[in-house]
Design a protein that fits this description.
Length: about 425
Amino acid sequence: MRTYFYEIAMLIVILALALPVSAQRRIPKDLSDVRGFNYESAETNDETEHWLRYNPAVAERDLDYAKRLLLNQVRVFVTHAAWEKDKVAFRKNLLHFVRAAYGRGMGVMPTMQYESDEWKDKTAWPNSREFVADLVATIGKEPGLMIWDVDNEPECCSLPPTPENRLHMEHAVYMAKVFHELDPITPVTIGATFAENMIDMGDAVDVLSFHDYSPTRAQIRATIEKAKQYAEKTRKPLVDTEIGCIARANPYDIALQEHMQAHVGSYIWELMITGYWGPVHGVFYPDGTVRDPSIVAALLGIFRNRGRDVVEVVPDRENHLTEVVTKNKKWLVDPNADWKTGLDLAEVSANLLEAAQLAAMHDPPTRQVKLLRSGVPDMPALRAMLQRFTSMLEPYQLPPGDPRRSEINAMQKDLSDADLRMWFVSPFQSKEVL
């Protein structure tokens, strides 16, 4: 009996070894549910510095921010320079990060950065084997490891690729073979700058990955469709590992909406507002506040209405806009105007501007008021601010008798102040009560 079971066990092992390597890999069937982000700490300026100054508490803080947004994948750059500087610390930090992410329900896609310009010299390509082998030994068996991204944008940024790009792409394909050899379990991808170049390198990978920062919905859709058609043809899972850039006319909410509607998983660039990319990328500041709440909403699948059925905002519906404009003008011509009163008027004005979306939010009016409050009194600055806010509000004043005014506003001239206070204190009472 023992001999029989031994023979069966050996047969299973032999059959397993006889299977192609790809059949043994844990290749996901579908990545459409990926809600990912690229990550570097906000306190650092590049990927190498991220690891050299790695702070476990900061990483956990940031991953907690991502968890609040229900994100489930993280792409993080792993650099040869950081590994070479201090291999022991690097292994410890990388292992901590992968486990911290996994503990929050997130898979990790390490993205390789090799020794600078190594790809230009084919005789130097084998030099990275030690780096790769150490990475596999460190996190290769971690359940949080999802996919190796063996090279980031090797063809950046030409379409069609230049001869130099072609060499870099050849290096990426070579590294995919190295990872396949040293890690028989984890799937491999190459983060291509363009879908066309992803297709060019498609035979070398288990997972198809492209980047898209297109400036119009039509271009985004066309790129996604091209990538999806190739994925269906090759029966390989597909994901977009970089989307979203303020400076490339690729708003996060639009890019996210298009990918969600196309059922293609994606990773935003990037979670944190970092030292280098911060002016044009990122969601969170270190304290957990955000640059643009519309990005947060989009990550949760909630998008701005851009259709025909938008309800017009009427900030002067109840006369409050006209009232503050009138008070602002009175304050502005008063030679003995009070500082605190002016600040309060500025705050009311700022709240109306923001609530009704009448002001650009790259520098929110309420932020301007807050900064002025926190400093020493500066009457010229306050006057300039109130003049600016008033000029922004005035176009939205409603003339007397405008039908957009609320019924209660139309009744004000026939009601006493006491009656109006009763109305506002008891808003659910019928008009007969008055």
